[in-house]
Amino acid sequence: MRVHCSILTKLVALVVITVALAAGTSIAPRALAADDRLNFTATTLSGAPFNGAGLQGKPAVLWFWTPWCPYCNAEAPGVSQVAAANPGVTFVGVAAHSDVEAMQNFVSKYNLNFTNLNDADGSIWARYNVPWQPAYVFYRADGTSTFVNNPTAAMPQQELSDRVAALK
């Protein structure tokens, strides 16, 4: 009988410790969601290296564009203004399907004073499954994101501004 009580006591103690440990882990801070799609390196249109992983845990906007796209051209002035008005949100343009000179001219024409990447081979577009331009990925600081792609119209500046405000 004594052996049985000893085993039972140990089992109860083990259950109590397990429950206590489980309760302790449930109040620990939640880890940020990591997005493996950000694990890429690229080159900016000015030739500097860029590491997408640096965007983890920060509010950010990836804007996928091409210089010959009429909707991208329509959006560019608004993107420039919204980026300038939101210094706490990192904007990164991801240019593809064109030559570097055309991409650089686009950036200059619209005064895009944020990082723009040369994705001439479309590898970053492929990571995000971007079928056409323009497209956006809006990252919140907790690592979650929203993909927006409308091939039939430019995103109105107010909608872009509202989406960016929601990231903060």
Automatic annotation (TrEMBL):
UniProt KW keywords: Redox-active center, Secreted, Signal
One GO MF annotation is: antioxidant activity
Extract the signal peptide range: 1-22
Where does this protein have coiled-coil stretches? none
Note whether Amino-acid biosynthesis occurs among the keywords. Answer: no
Q: Where is the Thioredoxin domain?
A: 31-168
Compartments reported by the entry: Secreted
Q: Name one Pfam family in it.
A: AhpC-TSA
What functional role does this protein have? Disulfide oxidoreductase that catalyzes the oxidation of reduced, unfolded secreted proteins to form disulfide bonds. Despite a weak homology to thioredoxin this cannot serve as a substrate for thioredoxin reductase.
Per the record, the similarity remark reads: Belongs to the thioredoxin family.
Name of the featured protein = Soluble secreted antigen MPT53
